[in-house]
């Protein structure tokens, strides 16, 4: 493995993003008896710790591009400016550093928001125009064509205000780095 190879590093990032999606919906379904009948959740298939790790590994992979890009550009300030000019990259760097050093950060807080991750969960994602059914007799989901389970979370600031969902943050952070890489011709 060549740790200096930017395309290889990007492939690992994209691979980590792919881990948040699972097309085997049935293994996640948990049906619980409640007073009003039955409740369907998607808690099986991955433990909470596994789902948290999926989200954290993606954030880590995005954040670690910083040092790699500094080495490629030989101009640290260009990379720092790219982060400081992007709200989402600031949040990603703060989350990564909080996971690494503890929360809240006591030194360099890029966003000044003390972001934290909450409500980590697996959700059912339906393709546009598709749906699913429930077999009442077996109490199972049916007609899951194109459906998938996705690991998601919410990102809040230190005062409890929602900043954004993990999906938006991840997508935006990746796009910001891709634009920076293209603008600086780091991949020929």
Write the layout of secondary structure elements.
Elements lengths: L5 H13 L2 E2 L7 E5 L2 E5 L6 H26 L2 H9 L2 H15 L14 E10 L7 E3 L4 E3 L5 E9 L5 E4 H18 L5
Antiparallel strand pairs: 1-7, 2-3, 4-7, 5-6, 7-8
Helix pairs in contact: 1-2, 2-3, 2-4, 2-5, 4-5
Number-wise, the strands total 8
Query: Roughly what is the average pLDDT, rounded to an integer?
Result: 90
Uncertain stretches: none
H and E order:
HEEEHHHEEEEEH
What is the number of helices? Answer: 5
How big a fraction of the residues is strand? 15-25%
Described by its quaternary structure, the protein is single chain
Helix content: 40-55%
Largest β-sheet summary: 4 strands, antiparallel
Distance between the termini: 19 Å
Total domains? 1
Radius of gyration: 19 Å
Q: How would the global form be characterised?
A: globular
> What structural class results from the helix and strand content?
alpha+beta
């Amino acid at each position: 493995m060549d740790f200096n190879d930017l395309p290889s590093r990007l492939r690992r990032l994209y691979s980590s993003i792919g881990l948040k999606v699972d097309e085997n919906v049935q293994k996640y379904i948990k049906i619980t008896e409640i007073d009003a009948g039955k409740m369907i959740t998607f808690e099986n298939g991955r433990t909470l710790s596994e789902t948290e790790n999926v989200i954290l590994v993606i954030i880590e992979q995005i954040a670690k591009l910083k040092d790699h890009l500094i080495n490629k550009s030989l101009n640290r300030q260009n990379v720092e400016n790219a982060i400081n000019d992007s709200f989402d990259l600031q949040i990603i760097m703060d989350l990564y550093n909080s996971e690494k050093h503890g929360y809240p950060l006591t030194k360099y807080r890029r966003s000044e928001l003390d972001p934290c991750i909450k409500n980590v969960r697996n959700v059912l994602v339906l393709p546009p125009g598709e749906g699913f059914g429930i077999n009442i007799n077996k109490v199972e989901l049916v007609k899951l064509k194109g459906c998938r389970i996705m690991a998601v979370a919410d990102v809040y600031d230190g005062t409890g205000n929602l900043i954004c969902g993990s999906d938006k943050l991840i997508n935006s952070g990746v796009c910001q780095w891709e634009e920076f890489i293209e603008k600086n011709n780091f991949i020929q």
